[in-house]
Amino acid sequence: MTEKQMTEKQKEEQARWGAMLSYLTPLRGGVTAPQGFKASGVKAEIRYSNRRDLALIYSETPAAAAALYTRNRVQAAPIAVTREHLQKGGRLRAAVINAGVANAGTGAQGVEDARQMARWTAEFLKIAPEEVAVASTGVIGMRLPMEKIRRGIYEAVQALSEDGGGDAARAIMTTDTRPKEAAVSFEWGGRTVTLGAMAKGAGMMHPNLATMLVFVTTDAAVEDAFLPAALTAAADRSVNMLSIDGDTSTNDMVLIMANGQAGNPLITADSGGERFLRALEYLLVKLTREMARDGEGATRLIEVEVVNAASESDARLAARTIVSSSLVKTAVHGRDPNWGRVLAALGYSGAEFDPEKVDIYFGKVCVAAGGCEQPFSEEEVRELLGEDEVRITVDLHAGTARAFAWGCDLSPDYVHINASYRS
């Protein structure tokens, strides 16, 4: 493809990911795209009577696993159980997830219920309970309807399929308006390595994993010590740079399972690690953008890029503070080119910079230079702020580091959705 044939979107992708796009192949599908994984999603009627609400992911062979959890001090029972299981052996065969009821704020009984979910899954799959991860999402403070859960898990086991990834992605949704899946592959050591993922998340989202559940599967053989390091690094540049409304959930989890069925040479930090990390980051950024686009009540995706920061830490602080600002979000919703709100958010972000050197762009239009207003066409910028994707770029002129953050506009529909969430 020549430069003239490339769309603006493709040019942006090329500029962002560079040489990585030359070896990475985006695929259709999600968690069942890699070899050796099956999934399903069924209607257990946990809280919803007309939709799938229980999902199951299954690996035919034991998989190395790692997870990241919410940083909220209040943590749901499934978090405790999954952490406990991973600490015991670091290997998983399955993940069982329910939507509708969060099993948070449920005390010791909630923990026992989460353990029972693992035991039932293990019983029906004929594996060990410690090989099962558990996750829940939904209303806080409600007990799980355990008989419905048991029946749902049994049905999910019977329904497991290599084509079941889409059903699983739909079954973990709460206020999401659409399922979120992605998959990619690359060559390593003469073998094709594939990563697939599904995610849910639309509200109660703020950097600290946001209110999300993300499940990544891969048929790569990955060193145990490198897998959690890669997941942390990729999450810090993707899911931890997402903010919808400033609230951090009790149930957030990002889980990866690597079963090695691709037959590739072992990926370590020094051998294939950089390629695997970038592929994982690419996958998680795709899902992060989809979660931001599907934010509760959202009409526009907002992408903030901070460039030429003194450090990546400063760039990340600045970008996620700007995208988290309610005033920035409402300005975008109202198509108001109020660049002062961006500058103000930048000022309290904690990032190091000189306010008199800051340039701000809405789309490709410079609206402020050296911390002061630049002449610009209000009509042109209002049109840019009305597009499906709104891009805000901030140049700190303080170094060479950069970072991206994602969010959405804040609309009256957000209030409507959350004012009646339990109804």
Q: List the helices and strands in order.
A: HEEEHEHEHHEEEHEEHEHHHEEEHEEH
Q: Class of the largest domain in CATH?
A: Alpha Beta
Averaged pLDDT, please?
89
Number of β-strand runs: 16
Distance between the first and last residues' Cα: 51 Å
Helix content: 25-40%
User: How many helical elements?
Assistant: 12
What is the fold named in CATH at topology level of the largest domain?
L-amino peptidase D-ALA esterase/amidase
Tell me the structural class. alpha+beta
Q: How does CATH name the architecture of the largest domain?
A: 4-Layer Sandwich
Note the beta-strand portion.
25-35%
Low-confidence stretches: 1-5, 203-210
Measured on Cα atoms, how large is the radius of gyration? 22 Å
Sheet bearing the most strands, described?
9 strands, mixed
Shape call: globular
CATH level-four homologous superfamily name of the largest domain: L-amino peptidase D-ALA esterase/amidase
How many discrete domains? Answer: 2
Detailed description of the structure:
With 423 residues, the protein is an alpha+beta fold. It folds into two domains: 30-287, L-amino peptidase D-ALA esterase/amidase, CATH 3.60.70; 301-419, Roll (Ubiquitin-like (UB roll)), CATH 3.10.20.340. It has helices at residues 8-17, 77-89, 107-125, 146-158, 165-171, 226-236, 273-293, 312-324, 326-333, 339-347, 378-385, 412-419, and strands at residues 25-27, 37-42, 54-69, 91-101, 132-139, 180-188, 191-200, 213-218, 242-243, 253-258, 301-309, 359-362, 365-369, 372-373, 389-395, 401-408. Strand 12 (359-362) and strand 13 (365-369) form a beta hairpin.
